[in-house]
Amino acid sequence: MDGSSENQGLLNPGPPRICRRESQLLIEGVDFLQKNAALAEEVRRTLVDLDEVEKELKKASKAIDAATGLTGKYRVRLQVLCENSHPPKTLREPQQKDDIPQMAGA
User: Fold this and answer.
1) Is the pLDDT of residue 43 over 80?
2) Total tally of structural domains belonging to the chain
């Protein structure tokens, strides 16, 4: 074999290979580019919206943590106030009242 067969493949490579996007562009034309641009813009807006949602969730989380801490603090304060509002009850022996007459046989 001479080198001419190898060179012929280089000189005549056959039809050019194109990627999928290029084939879609050839088939769909300019609409393909416009659809991709519109889709890219929608994805960008969605990511911005997700960032905003994430910021709001972080704020809500901080508010919940603060409310939880305050609830515990006020629960303790209320318990102390309730305990201090009246002295603890002591058990006393029931006393007989002097104005009730005693029964003779008892």
Assistant:
1) yes
2) 1
